From TrEMBL, chain A:
The gene is potA. CDD domains: ABC_PotA_N (cd03300). Belongs to the ABC transporter superfamily. Spermidine/putrescine importer (TC 3.A.1.11.1) family. It catalyses: ATP + H2O + polyamine-[polyamine-binding protein]Side 1 = ADP + phosphate + polyamineSide 2 + [polyamine-binding protein]Side 1. Gene3D superfamilies: 2.40.50.100, P-loop containing nucleotide triphosphate hydrolases. Keywords: ATP-binding, Cell membrane, Membrane, Nucleotide-binding, Translocase, Transport. This is Spermidine/putrescine import ATP-binding protein PotA. GO terms for molecular function: ABC-type putrescine transporter activity; ATP binding; ATP hydrolysis activity. Signal peptide: none annotated. GO terms for cellular component: ATP-binding cassette (ABC) transporter complex. PANTHER family: SPERMIDINE/PUTRESCINE IMPORT ATP-BINDING PROTEIN POTA, SPERMIDINE_PUTRESCINE IMPORT ATP-BINDING PROTEIN POTA.
Automatic annotation (TrEMBL), chain B:
Residues 175-381 form the ABC transmembrane type-1 domain. One of its GO terms (biological process) is transmembrane transport. The chain crosses the membrane at residues 12-31, 179-198, 210-233, 263-283, 304-333, 345-378. GO terms for cellular component: plasma membrane. It is a multi-pass membrane protein. Keywords: Cell membrane, Membrane, Transmembrane, Transmembrane helix, Transport. This is ABC transporter permease. It comes from Oryzicola mucosus. InterPro entries: MetI-like (IPR000515), MetI-like_sf (IPR035906).
Automatic annotation (TrEMBL), chain C:
This is ABC transporter permease. Pfam families: BPD_transp_1. It comes from Oryzicola mucosus. One of its GO terms (biological process) is transmembrane transport. Belongs to the binding-protein-dependent transport system permease family. Residues 61-249 form the ABC transmembrane type-1 domain. It comes from the Bacteria. The keyword Cell membrane applies.
């Protein structure tokens, strides 16, 4: 399958400052790709270059096989949803949505038809005459969405579009956008710094750090099989345990901890025996038992604190070499501080990462 | 709210001094200027006895002996030649022939050896009602003569308003010229100031500071210094002519000073900040992502400007233009120093009437016209900026 | 790229148009020639000497200083008091009063001048310092009101309420809290009032007699009647004073910013 969008060795400098470094990325038609990373990681700059607001310092951006570096934004045919919506305050909702169609010289009746359909799609038909300032944040967001989709753009770009909404509305919009993506078969590039948003919506997530892509994969891959320490820490919560590789057996490695205990863990990176590495253990994959079970990995620990958080019980543990955190399901029993326990997890629930 | 009344009392006490000061030295002067323009006491002042008798007259029959006696008494009592001259001028403008009639009458009255019995015996024109009618009308302390003359209108013999003959219609020309020059300056300021404000608003950091500083610096500099500076630049051996001649672009010096070109250039320089600042203050409130949004929706930069930036910044342009226009129509110093005789605006004419010829009536009347024009435009401006404040 | 160049060229040319005249006049203050043109034959301070020794110029400078000081005092006191009064939202016709306070900025100077001459003439105040100071105060007071009102609007009401809750009487609140916080506004208002008086020509023309000729008035008639490099020297003086005044305002703003 050839890529619909292709970034080919993209570099972007602001003066001496490198924001995007030798970046390659391919996106298939109909795919939903999130660019995830902290602010300043280059994800927004990449989106701006795709949109045509920024020029690449070097490298080529291809859309459907054609280089678009020199195509001005207004000819790129990309629908963009901006962070703060960028609705035209002097036009009504209907006029906002009609704007891209007018720019394409469509007839009045067709525009009216399309606008009605686009507003219907986001359940705002009743608001066509209103000014954007008379709408709530969520409604404005939906207007921005329908304005970006009404002209059937080749690609839809979204720059942190849900950042200004409150949590409940944001989660609803995430599902709505995902639904639109599936129904209309859109190609979407979505920039966010919110990892749960990226995991919820995307076909693939590209994790950015310091102008480079650290890892790209399905939400399950980046969460369960983090390739680097940065990815493991940035996406979700994790216990990072330091140790030395003792031996390798196929896709698994035995790691000895400073306390002397051993962990058998799946391996993401290429490591060799004798190398010091990290093991990432997701807190919700950790079980606590009072007697040593039959699981491969079992670390002795003492409970220092436990907090009931509604949907889970969060237990802080002290282990001779590392503090650990475990998230237990709500059916778990309470653990009082001082209790001696064993923290157990299977070899598939942890991951060896190169330092 | 027990502190309410005393607090209000205190506030009023604080407001009162400035309020009284401005009513006394701002509102009252404007008021007295207006009353100057409609007051007409040149005749009433000298003829108090006639003023008592004339209202009883039926305005058609020949003068009664009482009227003649009263006027004779009044004229005998006049000892101020200048006031007499003013009155004669005033009466003569209402009815020609008064000048000769009055001088004949006063010299006859001065002849104490052979005192005249009545006025008709001095000159039989005194027997005709028209002359008495002119006096009766001129005795009214109020007149619309000056105000009408300010817009080139006047009353004919029968009291109807009509246009003054062309040789007296100078004010209309000057009013038109004032608005024309102010309009040209406004357009020049808008053509330079609007793009300038757009560029400044699109920049950031030191580049923006430099652009704004360049606008604020002249604003902070004395108007006279700026006018003097343009004098130096524009004069025949000035820097502009020198530069153009050195470059070989022109053979002889261009006439840049004491003409319209110089006035427009210097006034544009002086008023440009008033255009740039309001536009800039509107532009920076426009979200930065609207133009990118328009581009992403397929709008060519020119269409994006016309559909998005222009409508959103039009209020700034309107405010700036009004501000420039209001300031320009009242301008005095720059046209007075840089302009020629053909470039004098209404302020210069007012100053001429007031200082040069002590014609307070005319100065006041033209002042009223300028004041009304200014206040009307200012109320539009105030409404515009109030709406602006509401919107954001 | 050509778009960028066009913008750059346009901005540069406009900056040149705005600033060049002010710069062009300065060197001529130091010319030795009797005519006000370039090139400058040799440098000399003779025109500054003229400025400070010739009777007309010297008296004009002194007059400007007297009238400017009087105007500043009167306008600052009246304007500051009125701005404090305007803070109260319970005042009737608050908007109208405010507009009245600002209107002297709008009314054409010549119109006001005619009225002033008529009225002050009636009081026998024309050709007197008092008359000129009154006239200048009328046009200077709006600047004080705008500046002080701005500073007062920036004061968080809760600070004053806090002072009151801590046991301060209204007068103490004003003296210890409100006034110190508003001081930068009062100062820049005073500076603006002085600058306004310094630059006033038209009202002076109508109200002042030969004994109250100010520097601006003297420059006006000098440009009109016998232009000489003394103008440039006066302009140099003006610009210097302006720069000093500007620095005071900037410093007071920095002070205000630092205090917040």
């Amino acid at each position: 399958m050839t890529d619909f969008i292709r970034f080919d060795r993209i570099n972007k400098f602001y003066g001496p400052l490198c924001v995007v470094e030798n970046l390659d990325l391919g996106i298939a038609k109909g795919e939903f790709v999130s660019l995830l990373g902290p602010s300043g990681s280059g994800k927004t700059t990449l989106l701006m270059m795709l949109a045509g607001f920024e020029r690449t310092t070097s490298g080529t951006i291809l859309l459907d096989g054609t280089a678009i570096n020199d195509v001005p934004t207004y000819k790129r045919d990309m629908g963009i949803v901006f962070q703060s919506y960028a609705l035209f305050p002097h036009m009504s909702v209907g006029e906002n949505v009609a704007f891209p169609l007018q720019m394409r010289g469509m007839g009045k009746t067709e525009i009216a038809e399309r606008v009605a359909k686009a507003l219907d799609m986001v359940q705002l038909s009743a608001y066509a005459e209103r000014r954007p300032s008379q709408l709530s944040g969520g409604q404005q967001q939906r207007v921005a969405l329908s304005r970006a989709l009404v002209f059937e753009p080749r690609v839809v770009l979204m720059d942190e579009p849900l950042g200004a909404l409150d949590k409940q509305l944001r989660e609803q919009m995430q599902l709505d956008i995902r639904d639109l993506h599936r129904r209309l078969g859109l190609t979407i590039v979505f920039v966010t710094h919110d990892q749960s948003e990226a995991l919820t919506m995307s076909d693939r997530v590209a994790v950015f750090n310091k102008g480079k892509i650290e890892q790209i994969g399905t939400p399950r891959q980046v969460y369960d099989e983090p390739a680097t320490r940065f990815v493991a820490e940035f996406i979700g919560e994790t216990n990072l345990v330091e140790g030395v590789v003792e031996s390798l057996q196929g896709q698994e490695a035995t790691v000895r901890l400073p306390s002397g205990a051993q962990i058998v863990s799946a391996v993401s990176a290429t490591v060799s025996a004798g190398q010091s590495v990290y093991v990432s253990i997701r807190p919700e994959r950790v079980d606590l038992t009072e007697i040593r079970g039959d699981q491969l990995n079992c670390l002795e620990a003492e409970v220092t604190d436990s907090v009931y958080q509604g949907d889970h019980l969060r237990v802080q543990l002290h282990n001779p070499s590392h503090p650990l955190i475990a998230k237990l399901g709500r059916r778990s029993r309470e653990f009082s501080p001082g209790t001696k326990v064993f923290a157990a997890f299977s070899s598939g629930d942890c991951r060896v990462i190169a330092p | 709210m027990s502190a309410g009344p005393s607090r209000t009392g205190r506030s009023l006490l604080l407001l009162a001094p400035l309020l009284i000061f401005l009513v006394g030295f701002f509102v009252w002067p404007l008021f007295s200027m207006m009353s100057q323009s409609v007051s007409d006491t040149a005749v009433l002042r000298l003829l108090p006895r006639s003023a008592e008798v004339l209202p009883d007259w039926d305005r058609a029959s020949p003068p009664t002996p009482a009227m003649q006696a009263a006027l004779m008494e009044d004229l005998k009592a006049v000892d101020d030649d200048q006031a007499l001259g003013d009155m004669v001028r005033r009466l003569n403008s209402a009815r020609s022939g008064f000048r000769t009639l009055m001088s004949k009458t006063t010299s006859a009255l001065d002849d104490t050896a052979n005192p005249p019995v009545d006025l008709v015996s001095i000159d039989d024109r005194w027997g005709r009602p028209e002359f008495w009618l002119a006096i009766a009308d001129a005795l009214s302390p109020l007149t619309d003569r000056n105000l009408l003359a300010a817009v080139d209108l006047g009353r004919n013999a029968s009291g109807d308003i009509e246009h003054l003959p062309a040789e007296q219609s100078v004010n209309g020309v000057i009013l038109l010229r004032t608005f024309w020059i102010a309009g040209l300056v406004t357009i020049a300021c808008a053509c330079i100031g609007y793009p300038y404000a757009i560029i400044a608003a699109s920049l950031s950091g030191w580049k923006r500071d430099v652009m704004l500083g360049a606008v604020l610096l002249p604003l902070w500099t004395s108007l006279l210094v700026r006018t003097a500076a343009w004098f130096i630049l524009l004069q025949e051996q000035g820097l502009i002519n020198d530069a153009l001649q050195t470059l070989g672009l022109i053979d002889g010096p261009l006439p840049l000073i004491f003409n319209r070109t110089g006035v427009i250039i210097a006034m544009t320089h002086v008023l440009l900040p008033f255009m740039v600042l309001p536009i800039y203050s509107v532009l920076i409130t426009i979200p930065k992502n609207l133009m990118p949004a328009a581009a992403s929706l397929g709008a060519h930069p020119i269409r994006a400007f016309l559909r998005v930036l222009l409508p959103l910044s039009l209020r700034g342009v309107a405010s700036g233009s009004l501000l420039v226009f209001i300031s320009a129509i009242g301008y005095y110093i720059t046209p007075a120093l840089i302009g020629g005789p053909g470039d004098q605006m209404i302020s210069s004419i007012i100053a001429f009437y007031a200082i040069g010829s002590a014609n307070w009536g005319m100065a006041g009347a033209l002042g009223v016209v300028l004041l009304i024009a200014t206040l009307l435009l200012y109320s539009v401006y105030a409404r515009l900026s109030a709406e602006e404040a509401e919107r954001y | 790229m050509p778009m960028k160049f066009t913008k750059f060229a346009f901005a540069s040319l406009t900056i040149l148009f705005l600033v060049a005249p002010l710069i062009a006049i300065l060197p001529l203050a130091f010319t030795s020639s009797v005519i006000l043109t370039y090139p400058i034959p040799s440098w000399s301070l003779r025109w500054f000497e003229e400025l400070f020794t010739a009777d007309a110029w010297r008296r004009a400078i002194v007059n400007s200083f007297i009238i400017g000081t009087g105007t500043t005092l009167l306008a600052t006191v009246l304007g500051t008091a009125a701005s404090l009064g305007l803070r109260n939202r319970l005042i009737f016709f608050r908007g109208t009063i405010r507009t009245l306070f600002l209107l002297p900025m709008v009314v054409p100077a010549v119109v006001l001048g005619v009225g002033m001459q008529v009225l002050l003439g009636g009081f026998g105040l024309t050709n007197s310092y008092a008359g000129v100071i009154i006239a200048h105060t009328v046009v200077a007071v709006p600047f004080v009101v705008v500046s002080v009102s701005g500073a007062l609007a920036g004061i968080d009401r809760r600070v004053e309420l806090a002072a009151e809750s801590l046991g301060a009487s209204p007068i103490t609140v004003f003296r210890r809290v409100t006034l110190p916080l508003a001081m930068p506004g009062v100062l820049s208002g005073a500076v603006l009032a002085f600058a306004t008086s310094l630059d006033e020509v038209v009202l002076t023309l109508f109200v002042a007699g030969p004994n109250q000729r100010t520097l601006a008035r003297q420059m006006f008639s000098s440009i009109r009647e016998n232009i000489s490099p003394a103008i440039a020297a006066a302009a140099f003086l003006f610009i210097t004073v302006t720069v000093v005044i500007g620095l005071i305002v900037i410093l007071s703003n920095v002070m205000r910013a630092r205090r917040r």
